[in-house]
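Need a sequence for this fold. Nothing fancy.
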C-alpha cells in the first residue's frame, strides 16, 4: 500500500534548540534549529508553514523539513504567526506577523545561535499558504530577504478565491472576495504587488490537488514578464505534501534549488557596495 503523503505532517522531529519571540502575542514566535557540523556561518533559513492560514495548522508540521535543513548545515527558524480562527488572525494580523517576523528573525537568531548565523539576508522557504506569505513578505521587504523558495504557493489569491480552495480559505483570510475587499487583494495578492520579489524559485507538483499548479504557472509567467528573477520547476508525479518531505522523491530538487538561491544571493551581496 502506498504511503499516505500527509504522514509527514505528523512525523516526529527533534525538538528545536530554542524558541524566540518577535512580538508579544503567544504565536509571534519562532523555533530555532542549530546547523549540524562545523563550518562558517550561513544565512538564516526561515521556514513559513502552510495550512491555508488556518489555526488548525501550526509550525510543528514543518519539523521534519526544518530538521533536515539544519542537518545540511543551515541555521533554521520555523516562523509562527496568528492564523484565521483565532483573535488577531486573518486580515491584517497574519500578514503583518510574517512581515515582522521575517524582519526580526535574522537578528534574534544571531543572538540565540552565536557564531552560526551569517550577517546576510535570510532565505525564505514557504509551503502552500506559507509560500504565499513568503512571496508577500519578500516583495514587501526585499532588503531583508535574499531569496525565496516557494513550494506549491497560493500565488494568486483572487483565483484561489474563485476556485474556493479549502472551502473559503482566502475569504477567511481577507474577509471577503475581490469584489468586496479589492484593496486587500491589491495589497496581499503576490501577483498584484508592484515590487518585484528577490531571486525566487517556485516548485510545484503537477499532481497537486490542494493548490493547482496553474496558479504557479500564471504567477511565474507574469513575474518573468515584469522582469523578476524567477523560475518555475514542475515535478511530474508529485503531489502537495511531498514537497516538504525530506524522505520523498522531491527532496533533491528542493536542496538543489536552495543551493542556487544561496549562490545567487551571495553573488548579489558581494556585488553590492552597501553590503
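Here you go.
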Amino acid at each position: 500500500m502506498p504511503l499516505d503523503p500527509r504522514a509527514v505532517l505528523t512525523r516526529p522531529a527533534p525538538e528545536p534548540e530554542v524558541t524566540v519571540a518577535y512580538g508579544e502575542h503567544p504565536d509571534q514566535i519562532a523555533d530555532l534549529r542549530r546547523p549540524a557540523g562545523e563550518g562558517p556561518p550561513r544565512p538564516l533559513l526561515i521556514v513559513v508553514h502552510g495550512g491555508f492560514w488556518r489555526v488548525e495548522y501550526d509550525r510543528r508540521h514543518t519539523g521534519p523539513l526544518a530538521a533536515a535543513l539544519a542537518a545540511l548545515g543551515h541555521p533554521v527558524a520555523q516562523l509562527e504567526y496568528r492564523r484565521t480562527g483565532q483573535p488577531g488572525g486573518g486580515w491584517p494580523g497574519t500578514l503583518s506577523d510574517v512581515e515582522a517576523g521575517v524582519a526580526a528573525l535574522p537578528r534574534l537568531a544571531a543572538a540565540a545561535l552565536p557564531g552560526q548565523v551569517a550577517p546576510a539576508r535570510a532565505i525564505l522557504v514557504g509551503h502552500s499558504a506559507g509560500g504565499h506569505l513568503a512571496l508577500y513578505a519578500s516583495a514587501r521587504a526585499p532588503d531583508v530577504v535574499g531569496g525565496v523558495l516557494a513550494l506549491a504557493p497560493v500565488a494568486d489569491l483572487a483565483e484561489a478565491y474563485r476556485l474556493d480552495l479549502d472551502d473559503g480559505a482566502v475569504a477567511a483570510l481577507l474577509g471577503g472576495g475581490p469584489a468586496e475587499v479589492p484593496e486587500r487583494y491589491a495589497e496581499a495578492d503576490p501577483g498584484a504587488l508592484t515590487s518585484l520579489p528577490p531571486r525566487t524559485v517556485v516548485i510545484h507538483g503537477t499532481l497537486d490537488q490542494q493548490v493547482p499548479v496553474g496558479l504557479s504557472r500564471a504567477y511565474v509567467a507574469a513575474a518573468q514578464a515584469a522582469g523578476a528573477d524567477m523560475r518555475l520547476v514542475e515535478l511530474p508525479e508529485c503531489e502537495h505534501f511531498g514537497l516538504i518531505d525530506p524522505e520523498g522523491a522531491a527532496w533533491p530538487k528542493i536542496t538543489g534549488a536552495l543551493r542556487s538561491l544561496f549562490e545567487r544571493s551571495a553573488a548579489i551581496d558581494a556585488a553590492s557596495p552597501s553590503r
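For context: The helical segments are 63-71, 93-112, 129-140, 157-163, 169-174, 182-188, 213-225, 251-271.
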